Amino acid sequence: MRVQDSENIRGLLDKLASGYELSEQEWRFLIDGSYDRELLYHKADEVRRQHYGTDVYIRGLIEISSYCRNDCLYCGIRRSNARAGRYRLSEEEILSCCERGYVLGFRTFVLQGGEDAFFTTKRVAGMVGKIKERYPDCAVTLSLGEREREDYEAWYQAGADRYLLRHETASKEHYGKIHPPTLSYEHRIQCLWDLKQIGYQTGCGFMVGSPYQSTEALIADMRFLREFQPQMVGIGPFIPHHDTPFRDYAQGSLTRTLTMAALTRLLLPKTLLPATTALGTIHPEGRELGLKAGANVVMPNLSPAGVRGQYSLYDNKLCTKEESAEGLEDLKRRVAVAGYQVVVDRGDSRLETAAADRSKKTGNAGVY
Ligand code: 5AD
């Protein structure tokens, strides 16, 4: 790619931030081109400050199950990994994670897990109900994979506010290369549209540098984000796991991940963008660099210490003590040194959702 002068780059970044659609060639340049990435990160930071100031929202991540019925080729807890340690948390354990988190100042709890049939519609709904009853000032986010629309509706009725389901890649061809044939791109995207229509603040996202990912696939990701308008976007580097078919592939690059995060901030100025754990795993200051490139969320782990090693999606997953009072103080200091501040807040997206009325049964609005 030709080296361009900074005036041209600024013009292109402004064009993106003003909502104009970019051509294939323009996207390709922003993703692959050799230009000063500081211009991009700086612009992303400026846009983030316009909408969210210097606030950083914290989400308490609770990894409720490492059982998964799926066999995604990149993931350490894939079904056919017989060496993966398996556990699931009881309702009591989950509630006690929330209790610890609340005292520390968390106002969002993210219940994430593999696709585990043990967590039935009713079980999850009951748990969500209890958390919302005990902590009415908190948001509950679910991240439990692809389920029936009825499940999503029941959990929304029970009080769940948000749902995270990374689309992983918006190229159907690429999707097929990193997933088993039992999974389909169409179904995943349908789940995302269902979630959004039900009224969830919905998050999608993708890995950067996953095997077979082309620049076109990343452009497809950006085009999908533009169409879908998610409230949240999770972007992290691919990191190989030693017990998966992708064990010998290289991890995603730091610069490329930061580039995609910053471009996402410009494309979706109001989105909630985490500086992901995977980013913190590939570089000691990965998360700080993410914040400086437009990210505004961090997700410390509130899972019980005894099970953490078993929720092993990729190798060397960053394991901090941020769930403890001292650890959180440390995180706050690091965020402050980077120029931002951790706030005690639900940290809702500034982007509206499809529906907010839980008094009516979803799908039947207008009948009552
Ligand atoms: N490297 C990076 N991210 C991964 N995930 C799963 N496996 C890996 C890996 N090897 C991400 C997926 C999933 C999220 C929970 O973790 O994007 O949606």
Write the layout of secondary structure elements.
Elements (H helix, E strand, L loop, with lengths): L5 H12 L6 H9 L4 H16 L2 E4 L1 E6 L25 H14 L3 E6 L7 H14 L4 E5 L5 H9 L4 E3 L7 H7 L6 H14 L2 E8 L6 H14 L3 E6 L16 H14 L9 H6 L3 H7 L4 E2 L26 H14 L2 E3 L25
Parallel strand pairs: 1-8, 1-9, 2-3, 3-4, 4-5, 5-6, 6-7
5'-deoxyadenosine binds next to loops.
Please tell me about this protein's structure.
With 368 residues, this protein is α/β, with parallel strands linked by helices. It has one domain (38-350): Alpha-Beta Barrel (TIM Barrel). The chain has 13 helices and nine strands. The strands form two sheets. A six-stranded parallel beta sheet has the order 2-3-4-5-6-7. A three-stranded parallel beta sheet has the order 8-1-9. Helix 6 (149-157) links the parallel strand 4 (139-143) and strand 5. Helix 1 (6-17) crosses helix 10 (254-267), helix 3 (37-52) packs across helix 10 (254-267) and helix 6 runs parallel beside helix 8. The radius of gyration is 20 Å and the shape is globular. Mean pLDDT is 94; it is low at 361-368. 5'-deoxyadenosine binds at residues 74-75, 166, 168, 207, 236, 238-239, 241, 278, 313-314.
Name the helicity range: 40-55%
Tell me the number of strands. 9
Please compute the radius of gyration using only Cα atoms: 20 Å
Going by CATH, the architecture would be Alpha-Beta Barrel
User: Number of DSSP helices?
Assistant: 13
User: Class in CATH?
Assistant: Alpha Beta
Structural class: alpha/beta
Beta content comes to 5-15%
Helix-strand topology string:
HHHEEHEHEHEHHEHEHHHEHE
* Largest sheet: number of strands, sense, barrel closure: 6 strands, parallel
Q: Give the ligands present.
A: 5'-deoxyadenosine
Number of separate domains: 1
